[in-house]
């Protein structure tokens, strides 16, 4: 906190640390949601300067420069719970914050598989729940198969991660655990994921945490890149555009206002893709505070999508209108 916020007085930094260390929420999911808001938006603090009360936000992560954060992947880190002491297989710490837990099972043991690892994480959530206050993702693997999911994901929602840097960057040999390590946990990609691809939906008293799948993550990243180019000045140089579009090499013309199309199959998560794209576009400085219009061809879809967008206000940072 001190290294990332040198402009703030010590009292303000200590206040931020105290807020993060004790959120004052008994529910794990409520605490996780509150923490994620502080992680992404910063911890609000007030301090006195020149006889005035000033407000600011304390950063917990340097989002723009992944290399300026402290990264640790720790094996068998010991955690003492109220009744049990547990040692999760691998915990990923970023600036001391445990953002991911990886539970592994021995591939040579025919008596266990990836779902035994999943069940082990459910036990950890009960016995060492403090570990998961800052959690972004859970990963389970038997050395070959690997699945990624959110804090509230059931077995059906623990999904594979099939790509590395972008959608067309897939290993020829799909060793799923290595793909997760090299793709999902690549520092620059992970920070983008944490910041823009985590949703909390609240319907009454029920809160569900959702995280994007690999296809949604890379589709949104590419769509935002193409949108920035399509909305840019027409006179932008061809070479510069080619450098920006090096990921796929597909042509998007500056100033054309035509960014492209994202195709989905039924049940592949169109709503999450739309929400994450809208959130990223709204925060894109080169687009200068755009307006996002969602158009459907049926009245019932209008209401359905409006409901979905309204539930994701934490990520959008805007109040949708119908």
Blueprint (SSEs and pairs):
Layout: H1 10-21, H2 28-41, E1 43-49, E2 52-58, E3 71-75, E4 79-80, E5 85-86, E6 90-94, E7 97-104, H3 114-127, E8 137-141, E9 146-149, H4 176-184, H5 187-196, E10 198-203, E11 206-211, H6 214-230, H7 238-244, H8 270-282, H9 299-311, H10 313-316
Detailed description of the structure:
The protein has 322 residues and is α+β, with helices and mostly antiparallel strands. 35% of the residues lie in helices and 18% in strands. The chain is built from ten helices and eleven strands. The protein has a five-stranded mixed sheet. Strand 6 (90-94) and strand 7 form a beta hairpin. Helix 6 (214-230) crosses helix 8 (270-282). The protein starts with 9 loop residues before the first helix and ends in a 6-residue tail after the last helix. Mean pLDDT is 88; it is low at 241-249.
């Amino acid at each position: 906190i001190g290294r990332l916020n040198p402009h703030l007085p010590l009292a303000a930094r200590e206040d931020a640390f105290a807020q993060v260390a004790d959120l004052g929420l008994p529910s794990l999911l409520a605490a996780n949601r509150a923490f994620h808001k502080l992680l992404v938006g910063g911890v609000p603090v007030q301090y006195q300067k020149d006889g005035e009360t000033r407000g600011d936000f304390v950063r917990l992560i340097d989002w723009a420069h992944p290399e300026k954060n402290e990264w640790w992947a720790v094996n068998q880190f010991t955690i003492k719970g109220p009744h049990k002491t547990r040692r999760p297989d691998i915990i990923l710490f970023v600036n001391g914050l445990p953002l991911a837990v990886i539970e592994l099972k021995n591939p040579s043991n025919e008596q266990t598989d990836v779902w035994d690892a999943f069940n082990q994480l459910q036990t950890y959530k009960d016995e060492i729940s403090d570990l998961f206050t800052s959690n972004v993702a859970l990963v389970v693997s038997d050395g070959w198969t690997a699945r990624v999911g959110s804090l509230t994901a059931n077995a059906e929602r623990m999904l594979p991660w099939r790509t590395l840097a972008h959608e067309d960057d897939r290993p020829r040999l799909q060793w799923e655990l290595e793909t997760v390590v090299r793709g999902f946990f690549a520092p620059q990609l992970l920070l983008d994921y944490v910041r823009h691809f985590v949703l909390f939906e609240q319907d009454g008293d029920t809160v569900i945490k959702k995280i994007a799948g690999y296809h949604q993550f890379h589709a949104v990243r590419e769509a935002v890149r193409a949108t920035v180019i399509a909305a840019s000045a027409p006179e932008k140089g061809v070479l510069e555009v080619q450098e920006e579009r090096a990921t796929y090499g597909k042509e998007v013309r500056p100033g054309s206002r035509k960014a492209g199309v994202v195709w989905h199959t039924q049940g592949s998560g169109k709503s999450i893709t739309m929400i994450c794209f809208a959130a990223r576009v709204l925060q894109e400085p080169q687009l200068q505070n755009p307006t996002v219009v969602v158009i459907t061809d049926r009245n019932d879809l209008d209401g359905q999508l409006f409901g979905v967008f309204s539930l994701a206000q934490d990520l959008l940072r805007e109040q949708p209108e119908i």
